[in-house]
Amino acid sequence: xxxxxxxxxxxxxxxxxxxxxxxxxxxxxxxxxxxxxxxxxxxxxxxxxxxxxxxxxxxxxxxxxxxxxxxxxxxxxxxxxxxxxxxxxxxxxxxxxxxxxxxxxxxxxxxxxxxxxxxxxxxxxxxxxxxxxxxxxxxxxxxxxxxxxxxxxxxxxxxxxxxxxxxxxxxxxxxxxxxxxxxxxxxxxxxxxxxxxxxxxxxxxxxxxxxxxxxxxxxxxxxx
Length: 224
Ligand SMILES: C[S@@+](CC[C@H](N)C(=O)[O-])C[C@H]1O[C@@H](n2cnc3c(N)ncnc32)[C@H](O)[C@@H]1O
Description:
The structure is a single chain. By secondary structure, the protein is an alpha/beta fold. It has one domain (5-149, 188-222): Vaccinia Virus protein VP39 (Rossmann fold). The chain has 10 helices and 7 strands. Strands 3-2-1-4-5-7-6 form a 7-stranded mixed beta sheet, sandwiched between helices. The two termini are 31 Å apart. S-adenosylmethionine binds next to helix 1 and helix 5.
């Protein structure tokens, strides 16, 4: 997939028309797995500090980080999603912008975290910026959907997306996402290329794990 195609998908998928239903939708569409994936991500952070939640959307992950006592900065390209985040907690620092260009000084954050960004992003630019703004010893934790590796899980995944597509007839504000998300997930190679990009940029202690029938994955790394 062309690296910048992801931005176009993101702009078409996330709009004013579906911002207010996003939180319920993500719970429904992942059968509640979203919460356990985010909990796994949070468990990788060992000390309290300043955390940048990239592609924070409506702030589901930002809220969990805030409850754990971190200083949270959220960044997202969709203004309407950030407006929902602000209704949850007006104290969070929110920036409307793209994750590949971070308006922060070098060595600023203890942690950068993100749910569902990799498939939409230009990974080399993203990782370059993350390395720059992370402190030495800081960690990066990225999570997103993947196309399952094993055949049996692939077949189950395809059935799931057929059902999701049908539910788009009822949930009109989400029909575009339900129609195109499977293609986007199949065409992204983020899970394969991200560890190599992290190594090339000088990150160490890289870990990768697949989740829930290989439908999602988390990759983490440390800036030495
Ligand atoms: C599926 S939502 C995820 C929101 C949130 N991370 C969560 O877990 O609920 C994807 C979000 O990524 C944002 N996004 C996609 N590409 C982006 C980019 N390059 N820079 C910043 N935000 C981006 C979209 O605007 C959207 O809010």
